[in-house]
Amino acid sequence: xxxxxxxxxxxxxxxxxxxxxxxxxxxxxxxxxxxxxxxxxxxxxxxxxxxxxxxxxxxxxxxxxxxxxxxxxxxxxxxxxxxxxxxxxxxxxxxxxxxxxxxxxxxxxxxxxxxxxxxxxxxxxxxxxxxxxxxxxxxxxxxxxxxxxxxxxxxxxxxxxxxxxxxxxxxxxxxxxxxxxxxxxxxxxxxxxxxxxxxxxxxxxxxxxxxxxxxxxxxxxxxxxxxxxxxxxxxxxxxxxxxxxxxxxxxxxxxxxxxxxxxxxxxxxxxxxxxxxxxxxxxxxxxxxxxxxxxxxxxxxxxxxxxxxxxxxxxxxxxxxxxxxxxxxxxxxxxxxxxxxxxxxxxxxxxxxxxxxxxxxxxxxxxxxxxxxxxxxxxxxxxxxxx
Length: 387
Known about the structure:
Blueprint: H1 2-8, H2 10-37, H3 40-67, H4 70-91, H5 96-106, H6 108-122, H7 130-158, H8 161-179, H9 192-207, H10 210-229, H11 232-238, H12 243-265, H13 273-282, H14 285-293, H15 297-309, H16 314-323, H17 327-344, H18 348-381
Helix pairs in contact: 2-5, 2-7, 2-8, 3-4, 3-5, 3-6, 3-17, 3-18, 4-5, 4-6, 4-8, 6-17, 7-8, 7-12, 7-16, 9-17, 10-17, 10-18, 13-16, 13-18, 14-15, 14-18
């Protein structure tokens, strides 16, 4: 089955590879760019603005893509993000205000991709092979990020941030050539008026959906650690760890994750996906405790390692969440959940940017406790199988 999926969806897999070869490193080096030329405060302001954008745009992008052309919507987003990345390379260090503005447009690339073309792809595959599909997809996705992280570390150490931003922005632009050639044959044949009515009805229904409510609570409690982790690069730099070392380490771990996830997903059934979903949430507890208890390089790297390897569960977790909705609802549910997640994280980055500078250990201690709350909520409220 694996060989059949690889052959059938190779173009889709390659699109994920080439897009995230650019997008992953661009987002990673953006944080280090802030920490190098400005501070965690400016980065916190950017994250807050980015989260505000993420409250509204996922649902809007998904609605437009559902009614019109997902490839066109994706193309517009990628072009905006690519040009912004090039501008950061040329002028990003001149002004914090300019960097925050350009970064917000740069991060639109992944946001638009996931909620237009990405959502369309998710519901164009067979449910029975979804776990293996997503593991193969992530093998290419994380393979792209891994390779990009290794290359970005080299480019930054040899040529500087400006050239790294320009190179990866051009690669993102090239990804359009491949994304516009893939086949996403399932289309909505309803009229625009019917689509408009159905989307409104779907959103109203989803707001009252038990799974959406449960996942929203999980995102709220686990989102504290996720936001705190956005600043982890700053802590590493303060401990004296070079940015190229951090990027190379992340790249290697991502590749290990992708390969491991592929083999794990082959053993997954519909009956054990929830258990792995719970393990995925809980895995963040250990690094949160390590970051809370120590300022040593060794324990920092151990925490970084454990926090990074949890992505091995990402395709299974995503497959489980996708399986909780039918195709019609799922397209909008994934976007709505993205909006809800960002809604909870709007104010966190500004506060955390200050706390990271003054008391990062307290922040990660609070995060560890809330992760346990997330596990309890998921255990009690999330369904065992697709209804």
